[in-house]
Amino acid sequence: MNIWIELATVAVEVFLPWYFFSGMLGSASGKRSVKIAVGIAYFAALTALSLFANASLARGLIVMCITYIAAKLYFGARWVELVYPTVLFFLFAVVTDILSGTILQAGGIPTAEIMGTGVGRLIYNSCSKLLHLMCLYICLSVSKYRDDSSIIVKALPLLLCQLLSIYIYHQNFISVLSGGHGTESFEVLALLYINIVICIYFEMLNHIHKKQKEAELEMQQLEVRRSHYTDVIERQEETRSLWHDIKKYMMLMEALVSSEDKAEARGYFDDISANFAGIANAVDTGNTLVDSILTYGMKRAGEYDVEIRPELWVDNNFAFPSADLFVIMGNTIDNAIEACCQFENKSMRIVSVILNQKNHFLLHEISNPYTDAKVRKPGKIHGYGLKNVKSCVERCGGTMEIARDNGVFSVAISLNLDEVAAKIQRA
């Protein structure tokens, strides 16, 4: 047994579960010193177990148990949450080990060379680990497809690199059997290293891209809140002004009524009613986030002569992630406004918004008229479609139903606030 080959194999075996569990569970929380200690202990345990390479079944079961415990200590997830990724990880490990040996044997490589202690063993180990990495990468890409439909397209270049590397491994093995030039060990390790580094950088870029999208969403939320607070301040000023002048208006109207000048009194009364109506149109559910989103939506709707009719009842302290609520309500309102703008008849531009909380359930329903004939898109309204809304609802453990009936398009979303609160607490 070549100790350097086995140590290199163990190093990759430490990296692969970290890469996979990080993708499935997210970033690990906790002290860095604890995570480093877990990593060192895991490496030492795998190194010791590599001495029993012949007892493959027993070694595999022991490694699975050690990985399960190490993942618990490193990521701090619940035990039950670790069962699925652990079983899936080792299922891929078994499949890729068998597949790697089959590929090399199909190319005329003797089993003795594959299971030897020299360069052949190194090539076999590297090929199986690269296949394992490729399977894990595909699995993570598919799991992320729900949040980003372009992830599969982005994954193709890296998959092609991995397939090409496997082909080069096979050619290196043939070169070894024919008495090659002696650089195969370096080439094999270099290829495996390059693929691992590319995977890491790819995940880092995805993480940066996700953070940028979150930052953009936060900026939009900030703009919505700023607009809402500005609107509240303006209405407060209007209210103060009206209360300042109300006594004067009442005395004037009393004088006009006494003089039986009812027409002019009626005119002043209509002016006062119109001023108070403007203040009454403010959204005030007691929940600042809901008020901000709806007030902003109603302002945008007003720019396109779209009327929003809200029916609201929510607890002012209900727990819900602000970014998710912004995506769900903001996008559905934007899409409804865009759909209404397709109608030239402005009397048809009506959007009904229901937000109703009952116990621990939250119902959000929005309906608007629709037509299959697309006429134009409003300049400032950009509905992102319902795919983002659906993925957000599913992430929050809710349900979403879409209906088209008699020219009315409706979206009904139901969310269990207890489940959402539990997810926030776990996060």
What would you note in describing this structure?
The protein is an alpha+beta fold. The chain has 13 helices and 5 strands. The protein has helices at residues 3-25, 32-49, 56-75, 79-106, 111-114, 119-144, 151-177, 184-258, 262-280, 288-303, 322-340, 387-395, 417-426, and strands spanning 307-313, 350-358, 361-369, 399-405, 408-416. Strands 1-2-3-5-4 form a 5-stranded mixed beta sheet. A hairpin with a 2-residue loop joins strand 2 and strand 3. The radius of gyration is 32 Å and the shape is elongated.
Mean pLDDT: 77
Structural category is alpha+beta
How is the biggest beta sheet arranged?
5 strands, mixed
> How many strand segments?
5
Shape: elongated
Low-confidence segments, given as residue ranges, are: 379-383
Total DSSP helices: 13
Helical amount among residues, as a percent range? 55-70%
- Give me the strand/helix succession: HHHHHHHHHHEHEEHEEH
Radius of gyration: 32 Å
Task: Tell me the strand order in the biggest sheet.
Answer: 1-2-3-5-4
End-to-end separation: 45 Å
Number of domains: 2
Q: How much of the residues is beta strand, in percent?
A: 5-15%
Question: Which terms would index this structure?
Answer:
alpha+beta; elongated; Heat Shock Protein 90; 10% strand; 69% helix; 5 strands; 427 residues; 13 helices
In brief, what are we looking at here?
By secondary structure, the protein is α+β, with helices and mostly antiparallel strands.
Describe the secondary-structure layout:
Blueprint: H1 3-25, H2 32-49, H3 56-75, H4 79-106, H5 111-114, H6 119-144, H7 151-177, H8 184-258, H9 262-280, H10 288-303, E1 307-313, H11 322-340, E2 350-358, E3 361-369, H12 387-395, E4 399-405, E5 408-416, H13 417-426
Parallel strand pairs: 1-2
Antiparallel strand pairs: 2-3, 3-5, 4-5
Helix pairs in contact: 1-2, 1-6, 2-3, 3-4, 4-6, 6-7, 6-8, 7-8, 8-9, 8-10, 8-11, 10-11, 11-12
